[in-house]
Amino acid sequence: MSQSNRQLHLNLFIMNAGHHEAAWRHQGTEPHNITDIEYFTRLAKTAEAAKFDSLFLADGLAINNNIKHGAFIGLEPFTLLSALASVTQRIGLIGTVSTTYNEPFHVARKFASLDHISKGRAGWNIVTSGSSVEANNFSKDTHLAHSKRYERANEFLQVTTGLWNSWEDDALIIDRDSGTFADHRKVRSIDHVGDSFKVRGPLNIPRSPQGYPVLVQAGSSEDGKEFAAQYAEAIFTAQQTLQEAQRFYSDVKSRLAHYGRTADQLLILPGICPIIGHTESEAKEKEQELNELTVIDYGLTQLSHMLNVDLFTYPLDGKLPELPRLEEINGNKSRFQLVVDLAAREDLTIRQLLHRLAGGRGHRTFAGTALQIADQLEEWFVNGASDGFNVMPPYLPAGLEEFAEQVIPELQRRGLFRREYSGHTLREHFGLARPANPHSIASAPAAASQAAASL
Amino acid sequence: MSQSNRQLHLNLFIMNAGHHEAAWRHQGTEPHNITDIEYFTRLAKTAEAAKFDSLFLADGLAINNNIKHGAFIGLEPFTLLSALASVTQRIGLIGTVSTTYNEPFHVARKFASLDHISKGRAGWNIVTSGSSVEANNFSKDTHLAHSKRYERANEFLQVTTGLWNSWEDDALIIDRDSGTFADHRKVRSIDHVGDSFKVRGPLNIPRSPQGYPVLVQAGSSEDGKEFAAQYAEAIFTAQQTLQEAQRFYSDVKSRLAHYGRTADQLLILPGICPIIGHTESEAKEKEQELNELTVIDYGLTQLSHMLNVDLFTYPLDGKLPELPRLEEINGNKSRFQLVVDLAAREDLTIRQLLHRLAGGRGHRTFAGTALQIADQLEEWFVNGASDGFNVMPPYLPAGLEEFAEQVIPELQRRGLFRREYSGHTLREHFGLARPANPHSIASAPAAASQAAASL
Q1: Touching check for A39 and chain B: CB below 8 Å?
Q2: ipTM of this predicted complex?
Q3: How much is the CA Rg of chain B, to the nearest whole Å?
Q4: B22: which of A4, A346, B113, B293 fits an S-S bond (Cβ 3.0–4.6 Å)?
Q5: What is the CATH number of the domain that holds A398?
Q6: What is the span of the domain harbouring residue A191?
Q7: What's the structural domain count of chain B?
């Protein structure tokens, strides 16, 4: 695709009542519906009608705060995505599953199932989990160290890709006359033996429409970037400024060659929490209104958790106290660094920082008109900072509807975004090739092999 | 409900192309569609239109045979059920999940999600897994011993019920004005510490419509029956004769009192694989036709696995060789005993036994007219052998359609089966009470407590 036809990719990041931490207090949101499938069905259908590439659900494996003033609770994302697969036709479905508290056989199998059920629309956001309260729900006293989590994640991906490739695409025969159900030579054990896992295989489900789900990653630490360069096909990342985003973009893309990959095999999608007004001042007022609905206790708990320091003992209108060093952080390292940099760059008090983070928990918040937002997206997109965006509406469903009705048509007018889906699978939306099965390549004659590679 | 109004309960056990091991070779089945959601949607809608209480999906965590002539493979049941929840309104959705290869936090959370998504239609068929090939997919060299699996299952249920009760039903407040999201006094840690698990909780999803999913169990060994008496609300069981079924029925029901439970708190649903003909001889011909489609190699592998002996070295037209003792069986103990008894009672050769097992893997197969089948079901139902049945069509979708069009109307004419759903949840279909939350009872004033208990 020529540079001038380059299209941006939009993922809708769905978060209960919305991404702003006070969304549930905002008129028009539906916090009572966060366990109601019909609510999420409406959101998914709106996103599909707007031609989003995909929708995405985050996850956590524990409640990590006093839930009095809010909490990230609700439907388990994988269960929810599968239910949404039945009521949508085109939009990609990306679910978060942790490699730290799961078994690769289950995960490989469930994503293969979701990919079959959705006819090729599954994506896996690979996380390593970030908090000790999660460990406590899985018979562990302490959280695995950051680098150990990535070692485990790495081996986890070896096992899951091995399992997804354990069936060649044409292994199922189903010849009634001869009684041949499958070609047993095309279904193989993987016999993986490693530090964390010992898995025999094969998987008990045939290879799925996409070969395997689109692999997505959201960690932006050193370990995270290296992991992404090796495995990820899309990255969700939090970037506050154009310069930071450009640096991250070129850093990650430059790491791909080492793994024999090209820059177009990995999409970088920074988060954006767009607060949309008919005028700039209306947008700023909306932002102000939302920030005034926040509950200080809630925000302080989240920020204390992010920074690994108890902020309740410091004055709200003072600056951040001395913080732990990055090496001591065993949660989300890159988010820690982002918050520290943000507070320093903008010289923020704790209260001001709470407001800056309320919209997107570290992801960029931008309040303006639809045109201004389209300008911002285009600026990042054409200046080497992104391949598209992870769109995080501050409140739902209205924040999504405003984006769909105002920003997307503007991006379409500029020729930056599709008016209709051209493909059917998430890989097709993202412009990613279907992974060839290494066994098929090895066993096929040259011509057939070439055909497989070009799929 | 008076004895005369007693209604039987019907569960549809869905198995890919059908329960007969040669179903995939039978004209009219759709083995190419076993990974296609639209195929399963059609089956679910047919079952719902016929007013089945529920549909059920079995599971295995490995391929345990050479797949040349057939295999139990396909969509992961939980993923599939969630997708079916979106396209059905009334029918219960029962999924199999193993307590041996899963974490209770994940399982509690996923079933709570499915129960929310389906608005109260979730059921969990609790299994402990039965084969060492499954162990090999989960970093274990050998399979956990039978009694150890049940010890783990027992603790697993303590944890999951604890987690399901960790939210009181009215814990979510969502008061926008005061900024009160939840009543934090009504959401509790469980702080479970046991031999197999250490789980802090609470669950990160509010209590679901049914309180928790209907708990189903399918093991009929000593350990299995005792586990069922303590926890199960429905049992799927394989019983070949009226007498055996009556013995099992009264045995299990008599164990409930020990756990402070009454006989009506547990439904016993024996399996039936009905082969339906317009005449008896047509039905027998159908059965014969199906049996002739079986592949000996496939059946022998399954039977060798069930009996823990390599049958390939014995003559097909001879009797079973000497078998291991029941104590040495670490798979499905009750199924082992059933097959041994069946072969002895009917004095079967190995080949004859293979045919007797081809329809339902040990579950009862009955070939006859719709009237004869209704007679059989009624006989068991009114003579203390069952509260309903686990219906296992030999081939799909036609075997289900025949049952829905011919047998169910006959059961309705006899006043034995509903013509319309009267309830909305699976508990309502099964006539089971919604479990009260022990925390709510403890903390509520007397009057409120009574109201909660009668829910």
Answers
A1: no
A2: 0.94
A3: 22
A4: B293
A5: 3.20.20.30
A6: 3-278+362-453
A7: 1
